[in-house]
Amino acid sequence: MFDEFLQRALVTLPSVALNAYHSRMAEAQAVRLPAYLNQMSWLAYLDPDSNQETRVPYPPQEANIGFIWRGRYHLIPLANALDPTTVHSAVLAAMTAQPRPPAALDDLLVAVRRAEHPTLRASLSPQALNELEALRRTPVLINWDERDPNQALVSLRQTKRGIGDHPLTLIRTSDSMVFDQSHIFFDGVWGASVAEIMTNEAVSWALYFSQTPAPTAAGLPYSPNLSADDGLRQRAQQAAIPVETGAENTGVKLAPILSLRKLLKQRNDMAQVTVNDILLLYRGLHARQYRPSSRLQQALDLLQRDSRPDAQRAHRMISEAFARMDGKNPAMLIPIDASRHDPAERVFPTTFRNPLVDFYDQHQRCVQALNAYRADQAKGQRGSAFQTFHDAQAHYLRLIAGFGELLTRYRTVALMGQSTSIASIRFLGGLPPVMQKLLDTIPSRFDVLNEVIKGEEVFSNMGRVAKGSGLRRFITAKDDNEQKTLAWGVLTDDQDTIHLSLRDFRPHVTVLQSLNLLHVAQFIAQDYLDAYADGLNQYVEELRQIVLASRETQLGKME
Fold it and tell me: Which residues pair with 333 in a beta bridge?
């Protein structure tokens, strides 16, 4: 449809403009298109070293499509995978064959820091290295070992999913598929599009196979052993990445937020506040006012009474984490879709910290003034409370409008490719790998630099999916910066349900996992996220009441 519109538009152009268009298009196709296609291709694997990841392309004849059954990988050459009958027969043969011991090497490598991979892989046998070469040339893995859909996405992906070299793993649950995507190959928008495309294709193929005769099992597809010895296990454990946990929540009410946006717009036409602006605004307020729930406090009290040294250490870490959050105004790294500016750019990151540090105090004063004003109204009085609220309200709502304008400016700067984060990335990109690694570690050593360039947390909002979309949940990725300890993901489904996710990488998670108390770490993350959702709903309602009172105060000033 767009191509037809474009062709009709081109016909109306003067010949000079038309020739200029064709000339520039030919130049772009010759110079920029090959690089863009290479960037978007899945026929590549990631080769890690101590400094960076390198994308290594390979030809289609070396590629496989893989599926995982009972903990073992089965690889089908891409050339054979083009015939659906061949694939169907090979899958049936693997699924009906005698069970064999599950792979082990993949579990070790996927849990190891990528910078340590070259050293560990150098110690492997030639057979194991050949098996890894076949696995890394498998752009898509389908894990058919069923998982519980009620688990958080952070937990669902802790299963067989390759070694981190390939683009995509699909993980089956009893009622859905999870798309585990490499953030080097996929940004959020492109990843969501791929999930939709592949889901629609899968539905079409399911209909096709339902109308064809049942296949007969053919020869078994290649299944690498991927075994690991005790020595490798010990070395991998020493280089393991920090353990993470996570939480999800669907308690945020979208309708009141949309209503609030309209009210703010009616009061002040300049108040361009988006749903994401309100989510970000409350993130800073939540960091200041969060207190553990009574159930979580009971669990922490039990941990404090645990006499094991690591339990005491974990309790201290948790207490310190809560103390750091109290009053904290976190610097957020916000990924912004850059495809409209330039498809090759994919994502423009920007860091944002709310400069209006007294937002929480202003809100509390305005709520208290509103309550005092309404108390006077209920008594039939008209005292000084009216003027106090009117002044507090006017000041606070100007702050809200200013906050929305500030975030709009941040997005505008980022979409022009001029944010501090983008400038630092481009600067590093032109340096040798060793210098990139050296300079990339500098911000993490200085809090101020880290907050300006990389942020302390990730806050990624996918927005609302298209009508009829099957996408329901989303967790975001983070870079290897150990200063980032929380990663927030937001997705609104086609039923207008907001799905929140939180990944927690704080140090106490690893210690609790070593004590077989990972459920306590998960409880901490869940409590924090639930409190955010509940507090946001309350904040939106209080702000809504403040805005609704505007007519009363305006009429009062006119009397």
Answer: 351, 458
- The number of folded domains in the chain is 2
Same domain, residue pair 487 and 517? yes
Q: Is 216 contained in some domain?
A: yes
Q: Residues 377, 267: one domain?
A: yes
Q: What range defines the domain where residue 56 resides?
A: 44-238
Q: Which of 219, 238, 257 is the last residue of a domain?
A: 238
* Residue-by-residue pLDDT tens, the chain, 559 positions: 556 766 676 677 788 877 888 888 888 888 888 888 888 899 999 999 877 888 999 999 999 999 999 999 999 999 988 888 888 899 999 999 999 999 999 999 999 999 899 999 999 999 999 999 999 999 999 999 999 999 999 999 999 999 999 999 999 999 999 999 998 899 888 899 999 999 999 999 888 888 888 888 778 899 999 999 888 899 998 888 889 999 999 999 999 999 999 888 887 766 788 999 999 999 988 988 899 999 999 999 999 999 999 999 999 999 988 887 766 778 888 888 777 767 777 777 778 888 777 888 888 999 999 998 888 777 766 677 888 888 888 888 888 888 888 888 877 776 666 555 555 555 445 545 554 454 455 444 444 444 445 678 899 999 999 888 889 999 998 866 667 789 999 999 999 999 999 999 999 999 999 999 999 999 999 999 999 999 999 999 999 999 988 555 444 444 4
Q: Are residues 359 and 508 in the same domain?
A: yes
- DSSP state, residue 49: -
CATH number of the domain enclosing 180: 3.30.559.70
Q: DSSP code of 181?
A: E
128 & 217 share domain: yes
Name the domain boundary from 189, 206, 238.
Answer: 238
User: Do 204 and 317 share a structural domain?
Assistant: no
CB burial of 337-368 (b: ≥16 within 10 Å; e: otherwise) equals: bbeeeeeeebbbbbbbebeeeebbebbebbbe
| Residues in Cβ contact with 258 at an 8 Å cutoff, skipping those fewer than 6 apart | 275
- Global pTM reads 0.87
CA atoms of 224 and 77, how far apart (whole Å): 14
